[in-house]
Amino acid sequence: MEKEVKQTKGKIAGIIANLVTVEVDGPVSQNEICYIKHAGIDLMAEVIKVFEKKVFIQVFESTRGLKIGQEVEFSGGMLEVTLGPGILSRNYDGLQHDLDRMEGVFLKRGDYTDALDYEKTWDFTPLANIGDTVIAGDWLGEVTENVIPHKIMVPFSFSGKFTIKKLAAAGSYKVLDEIAILADSKGTEYKVTMTQKWPVKIPVKTYVNKPRPYKLLETGVRTIDTLNPIVEGGTGFIPGPFGSGKTVMQQAISKQAEADIVIVAACGERANEVVEIFTEFPELEDPRTGRKLMERTTIIANTSNMPVAAREASVYTAMTIAEYYRTMGLKVLLLADSTSRWAQALREMSNRMEELPGPDAFPMDLPAIISNFYSRAGFVHLNNGATGSITFIGTVSPAGGNLKEPVTESTKKAARCFYALSQQRADSKRYPAIDPIDSYSKYLEYPELQEYLKTNISENWIDQVLRAKNFLLRGKEASEQINILGDDGVPVDYHLRFWRGEVIDFVVLQQDAFDEIDKRTSLERQKFLLETVLEICDIDFRFESFDEVNPYFKRIINTLKQMNYSEYKSEKFNSFYNELQTIIGERK
Amino acid sequence: METKAFQKIYTKIIQITKATCSLRATGVGYEELAMVNGRLAQVVKIIGDVVTLQVFGGTEGIPTNAEVVFMGKPPVLKVSDDLAGRFFNAFGNPIDGGPEVEGEEREIGGPSVNPVRRKQPSELIATGIAGIDMNNTLVTGQKIPFFADPDQPFNQVMAMVAMRAKADKIILGGMGLTNDDYLFYKNVFENAGALERIISFVNTTENPPVERLLVPDMALTAAEYFAVDKKQSVLVLLTDMTLYADALSIVSNRMDQIPSKDSMPGSLYSDLAKIYEKAVQFPDGGSITIIAVTTLSGGDITHAIPDNTGYITEGQLFLRKDSDIGKVIVDPFRSLSRLKQLVIGKKTRKDHPQVMNTAIRLFADAAQAKTKLENGFDLTDYDERTLKFGKEYSDKLLAIDVNIDIDMMLDTAWSLFAKYFSKAEVAIRSEFMDLYWKGE
Question: What is the dotted CATH code of the domain comprising A9-78?
């Protein structure tokens, strides 16, 4: 559906950093994209405020050298992404320009590369029939993108019912080739290709409904899967001071989680971390397909030194791509590191526009913006009965590590899982530093998930998890008592309680993200481990005095850790298990 | 920088603050340089025909009829191999009495490297200091600050690291350096006979504070010349970034911007990131490594400057005086090098990661035992042993006067383990135990 092209133009009237004011000669819309004509290149910008004839635009590039009176052309459309086969394995900037196709070592202003390869051909198989009635998001056909069945859909912008007049036969087509002709109720015909555009700020809603999620999303990270599980279509966030392992955590999840598609939005973070993903993902074998992980991954990179206005766009670009793949009936995992940088980008702009500030100088509508964004995730039923999901995990970088700041507080209201990284745990190198007591997963209270866990893990799984949490809490209390009253000032039983918590901490919670075996634990193994550990916690070991407790439990922990480092059910694993039984036997 | 013919001279300033002045002018480009009564200034805001200039030398004594000339270009540095061995001020003018450097003019504060054109850093930088090499290994292309209180010897440690690191060029960006510290660096460089490898851009406490804003960009433009054009490994030392951030807040304050946390501008994160993200490893061998200093007040890392820095840099190094041994050590708990995972156990011996973690864990036990002791509780036998271990570990490995290679550091750690602990207490993977355990 082609839009009518209006040609509003304007001239620059003011410049403060990347906020430019423009005097316009015609109509403009909020969030409209415009281009500043500068020395033979076009600099992309977005309308963020209109005041009579004066339009405030945020420029997605450096504004160095711009002058008053320079011409600005308005595009008539909002910031859009290009959707179609060929998005996977690509590295985009925040505005979906392909970074690999840009020339030179340094980013050049106005170097806008295509998001898709328009020359590549795809083997198309039709999934619908001529004469079928279809609506936006329905599947017309399929191509294979790497290993993923990529559906060619009725464009999301088509409203109402359409009849398929023509549909391409199986064969090779380019992205812009005609795939179908659809007619609306009045008989007007529209051409459909393999690609479509969609404005990033508008959620894609081509699904029937969004039920409560119920399926566990396996991540292989024990402290998540066992203690505070996330679900397919769930939302979670990881706040933590710097150095507490946020990024390592997110990368572990992205590498291991049971998702069809992984989209990583590196939002205002370190370039070397993005390079790590660029370098490692193409090498990492995908345990599910035996192919490379990069084949089902897309990276949106707006590193901290890239233009700040594109930072906000980057998370929306990533979310829209995620919604596109969800509509194909796929399980999408979306990770954004870090949403605080995005909030800061909003603050910089709000500040330059001299808006009245909210708490910590953030814009007043920050909580609304964050919760709207999180609400775009979720598990959905599609028109044809298939299901798809977007699981969203964002990191938050609270200023000064203080969780009472506006971004953390707003996110806490929106996300259902809270993985609090603790500085104290990080300092004592207890990684992952997710605090087992402060963190929570609201999904654990969902009867839907409880039912799923009962069927898929074991009947009493939830009880076991709650017992483990209880042991941790009692261990923490005991440790506080011991610290106040001294080792010999408390009954031996307190030491026993303390060490039960430590066993769970060292063996279940702590996990070596850099060890080949320990980094990923299957659900079956997690079940075995938790059961083994709880058995130990349930034993009333006999100790004469407190100083026997510490060395004895250290032996238990050491043996269990050696098991964690060994291949599951291997000879080595079994021999450590036998050793463990001998140690337990000593004091039963 | 002399003015060219046919340049329009403006003589009517309509507003003056402590750091900025405004006038009516046309045809001015954003971020363009100007001269205000002979002082260098830069365009920071244009609204209609009113141009606001940030005057680097401060506005003291600027009259409303001052002569203002626009130079038609942003700040530049002339780059060539002749930069080596020279000392410059914040504007890139020589302060060592030598001639002007001739070369290609490059805009400072240029564009960022396309992330897909970067290479993952993988070259270890050996410093001989075990608190760094063993616990917080540095890698080329990394950016890392020292977080230190003003009384700690960070300039000395940084100079030591710079001299031992095998960099082709060392570039010093000094911001608000005291004259004494400036002379200290100059001496160290000269005495090491390394002057031809060194370039310095220095703003001392005698110079106006706003000038400092140019120093990191000058230093990094020179660094990019050597790393990109000459494919050299360049080490950039920036001291003190806290004073740089203070200058940022002065300017934003004068421009009536709404301050965010700790009176810092809302854009502090982006401003700092633009500097630190110049650290890079290129595929063809060139690299820029940044070691900076961020001074703290009373060790408070939650202040906006260290806090934002910590989120940008790849770790941080903390110095602390260990009263038990009377030496300055690199604090193993609060220090972190995020890039160490790329080299430890890969470029160094396989047991490195586990030895490092175990030693720190036992040192933490020692700290706990010490608290117990101070609170008047009885110590167990294990506590007694960790205390002794802690002292020796601190003295032989954490102290900044250590200068040994990494294998030697690991061997020292293994012998300390065997001296004070049993195998079960050390709990390292059995294959390493078999290879390196120094006890029975």
Answer: 2.40.10.170
For B111, the closest of A107, A308, A360 (CB atoms) is A107
Global pTM exceeds 0.80: yes
Pairing of strands A297-302, A91-92: parallel
B380 plus B303 within the same structural domain? no
CATH fold group of domain A461-586: 1.10.1140
Instruction: Give the architecture-level CATH label for domain A118-194.
Output: Beta Barrel (2.40)
Which residues of A are less than 8 Å from B361 in CB distance?
428-429
Q: Which residue in the set B27, B119, B307 is minimally distant from A399, CB to CB?
A: B307
Q: If you ran DSSP here, which 8-state letter would residue A362 be given?
A: -
Residue of B nearest to A427 (CA): B333
The structure tokens listed for A449 are 């998930």
- Helix residue spans in B314-380 (DSSP H): 352-374
Judge: A429–B361 Cβ closer than 8 Å, yes or no: yes
Nearest-neighbour CA in chain B from A243: distance (Å): 7
Q: Where are the domains of chain A?
A: 9-78, 118-194, 222-440, 461-586
Note which residues in 236-295 of chain B have CB less than 8 A from chain A.
257-261, 266-267, 269-270, 273-274, 277-280, 282
- Give the per-residue pLDDT at A1: 44
CB within 8 Å: B47 and A64: no
Domain identity same for B91 and B194: yes
A354 touching B (Cβ < 8 Å): yes
Q: What's the total number of domains in chain B?
A: 3
Residue B259 shares a structural domain with residue B187 = yes
Residues B360 and B399 in one domain: yes
A222-440: CATH topology is Rossmann fold (3.40.50)
Reported as type and span, the H/E element at residue A14 is strand A9-16
Whether A344 sits inside 8 A of B49 (CB atoms) is: no
Could you give the count of Cα atoms lying within 13 Å of A415 in the half-sphere of its Cβ?
27
Domain-ending residue, one of B289, B313, B337? B313
Residue B5 pLDDT grade (very low, low, confident, very high; cuts 50, 70, 90): low
Exposure on the CB side of residue B321, measured as CA atoms within 13 A = 7
Answer whether B299 touches A (CB < 8 Å): no
Instruction: Please give, one letter per residue, the 3-state secondary structure of B184-204.
Output: HHHHHHHHCCCHHHEEEEEEE
In a domain, B345, yes or no: no
What DSSP element (H or E) covers B77? strand B76-79
ipTM: 0.85
Domain residue limits at B85? 76-107+140-313
pLDDT at A488 over 90: no
Residue of chain A whose Cα is closest to the Cα of B339: A272
Tokens 């002045």 -> residue: B21
Contact A270 B277 (CB under 8 A): yes
Check: CB of residue B350 under 8 Å from CB of residue B434: no
Asked if residue B2 has pLDDT above 70, the reply is no
A15, B303: Cβ pair inside 8 Å? no
Decide if B105 contacts B78 (C-beta within 8 A).
Answer: yes
Mean pLDDT for the stretch of residues A74-88:
95
Torsions phi, psi of A92, nearest 5? Answer: -105, 160
Q: Are residues B43 and B90 in the same domain?
A: no
Contact yes or no for B267 and A308 at CB 8 A? yes
Classify residue B375 as exposed, middle or buried by CB count within 10 Å of its CB (0-12, 13-18, 19+). exposed
CATH number of the CATH domain containing B157: 3.40.50.12240
Residue B70 near residue B25, CB atoms below 8 Å: yes
